[in-house]
Design goal:
The protein is of the alpha+beta class. The protein is 50% helix and 18% strand. It is built from 3 helices and 4 strands, in the order E-E-H-E-H-H-E. Helix 2 runs antiparallel to helix 3. The protein is elongated and about 45 Å long. The two termini are 14 Å apart.
Length: 105
């Protein structure tokens, strides 16, 4: 499955299922074929993504500084900040315009 996040305020953001599931889980949404992030929910979603990025980067820094230490970093070699950036931009633009973000509809 491919997620296509849409808003009337910005261009679509397309993600593979694993990445879309990750973004939805971070913001507290159940991964599903269809859904909505209302304009009122967007600020909390952005805050959750930014917090997850900080945790991810701290774990990655700890791993680099201590090569013998096993530190679990979720995902692949693409940093969460890079993967989430287009989605966060979509959310910010949508919030400024007062528009919801939907997928699968």
């Amino acid at each position: 499955m491919i997620y296509k996040f849409r808003s009337q305020a910005a261009a679509d953001v397309v993600m593979l299922q694993a990445n879309g599931d990750q973004m939805l889980t971070i913001i507290g949404k159940e991964p599903s074929a269809q859904g909505i992030i209302t304009a009122a929910q967007i600020p909390a979603a952005i805050a959750a993504l930014e917090a997850a990025i900080e945790v991810h980067e701290a774990a990655e820094t700890k791993r680099r500084e201590n090569p013998g230490l096993v530190v679990e970093v979720e995902g692949d070699s693409v940093m969460l900040r890079q993967r989430a950036a287009p989605f966060i931009d979509l959310l910010r633009t949508s919030a400024q315009a007062g528009k919801d973000v939907v997928w699968g509809v």
